[in-house]
TrEMBL record:
Homodimer. Residues 224-269 form the Aminoglycoside phosphotransferase domain. GO terms for biological process: methionine biosynthetic process. Transmembrane segments: none annotated. It comes from the Bacteria. Pfam families: APH. Keywords: ATP-binding, Kinase, Nucleotide-binding, Transferase. One of its GO terms (molecular function) is ATP binding. This is S-methyl-5-thioribose kinase.
Length: 404
């Protein structure tokens, strides 16, 4: 019998099945289990474990000592504890859009969660140019609740500070500080720039001192602004979706930071889907339908978030000064400014940096891919440099058709 009690090790599929029977109290004693490692992300191991007799299934997620994307990133397995705890918090705040989780194991650095195999990763669905009319409604409810209700506006301040301590996440934050805020904006050896895009990057990104200065300011905001409990990696690869339903997964980058970070990630990754649709859909009518859907969704993400945020503020704000005339408007304006900035940072880092997105890399024609990447980078610069001018959903989309 395998020892799961005294020392950590990275599990095989067979060991994950054994672990499920011994530790999870989820399957029947006579269960006939099959297990497959299905993780396709950059960091963790994800096991889908199923009982062939009952069809009951569960996901077991284990944190390894290094990132799967590169063994350069040495990571504390404590990120698994952070992820399991924030999923519980998010489930309490927005159960409709968060998977249910089960016990966390501090020895094996793993936890179990409900199987969402009947959902599809949103990025994959968007690359197939599927549309989800309810997505903006769902994701804005998720973000408004998780970002405002974990802030000083609502929480008792000592309780909030305890959460800040609990969600200190230095290794994962360092990855974000490096890959998002720093490396894309100079010729770092870890960058991976598509050949056709390189000359634009050299001149317009690495050669722009004003842009460098603004990203420096943004990096220090990210490191010092403990505003809300973030998901920390809220892109379309961290969202499971199907018609009428949305589930947000993989919050292992969670920590207290600027609320606009989550919203900006959603916006940027919708723009990647927009770029893909523009370059890969050959039928004019189909292309117009899909890209219009994406633009409308970005607009709704901003405007619905604002509406829900304002309503939640009115219903839940406990901090006295939060009710002073003009303060709510100021607070929300700073979130939208951060949202625009982060949209630009995410667009830049996925084009220039180490971790790519399939929306762009799946564009087969090299000229089309180059054009899509340059358009993303032009939008990125505008978002970063003019970030204080983005106040409405229309502001976020009005220039995109011209750029693409």
């Amino acid at each position: 019998m395998t020892d799961f009690e005294t020392k950590y090790f990275t599990m095989t599929e067979a060991e994950a099945s054994e672990y499920a029977m011994e530790k999870l109290n989820f399957f029947d004693e006579n269960a006939d289990l099959t297990c497959k490692e299905i993780g396709d992300g950059n960091l963790n191991y994800v096991f889908l474990i199923k009982d062939n007799k009952s069809d009951k299934s569960i996901i077991l997620k284990q944190a390894g000592p290094v990132a799967r994307i590169s063994d350069e990133f040495k990571l504390s397995p404590d990120r698994n504890r952070i992820e399991s705890e924030i999923l519980k918090i998010q489930y309490n705040l927005v159960p409709k859009y968060t998977p249910n989780t089960y016990q966390y194991d501090s020895v094996m650095n793993c936890f179990a969660m409900e199987d969402l195999s009947d959902f599809e990763i949103m990025r994959s669905a968007l690359i197939k140019h599927r549309v989800f009319p309810d997505f903006a409604e769902h994701i804005t409810t998720f973000m408004a609740n998780t970002l405002l209700l974990t802030s000083d506006v609502v929480m008792e301040h000592k309780e909030k500070k305890d959460l800040v301590k609990s969600f200190i996440n230095p290794e994962l934050c360092e990855i974000t500080e490096d890959l998002v805020y720093t490396e894309p904006f100079y010729p770092c050896e870890r960058n991976e720039v598509f050949p056709g895009t390189l000359s634009f990057v050299e001149e317009e990104i690495w050669g722009d001192e004003r842009l460098s200065l603004e990203t420096a300011k943004l990096k220090f905001d990210f490191m010092t602004k403990a505003q809300a409990l973030l998901h920390g990696d809220l892109h379309t690869g961290s969202i499971f979706i199907k018609e009428g339903e949305t589930k947000v997964i993989d919050p292992e980058f969670a920590f207290y930071g600027p609320a606009g970070y989550d919203i900006g990630n959603v916006v940027a990754n919708l723009i990647f889907a927009y770029a893909n649709g523009q370059k890969t859909i050959k039928d004019n009518t189909e292309r117009e339908a899909f890209t219009s859907y994406i633009l409308d969704t970005i607009k709704k993400v901003i405007d619905l978030f604002k509406d829900k945020f304002n309503k939640l503020w009115a219903e839940n704000a406990t901090e006295r000064v939060a009710h002073y005339n003009g303060f709510r408007e100021h607070y929300l304006e700073t979130i939208l400014t951060d949202t625009a900035a982060v949209a630009g940072l995410e667009l830049s880092r996925r084009i220039i940096g180490l971790a790519k997105v399939a929306d762009i890399t799946s564009i087969d024609d090299s000229d089309d891919r180059t054009a899509a990447e340059i358009s993303c980078l032009k939008a990125a610069k505008r978002f970063i440099l003019e970030r204080s001018s983005y106040k409405t959903g229309e502001d976020f989309i009005k220039d995109l058709p011209k750029l693409f």
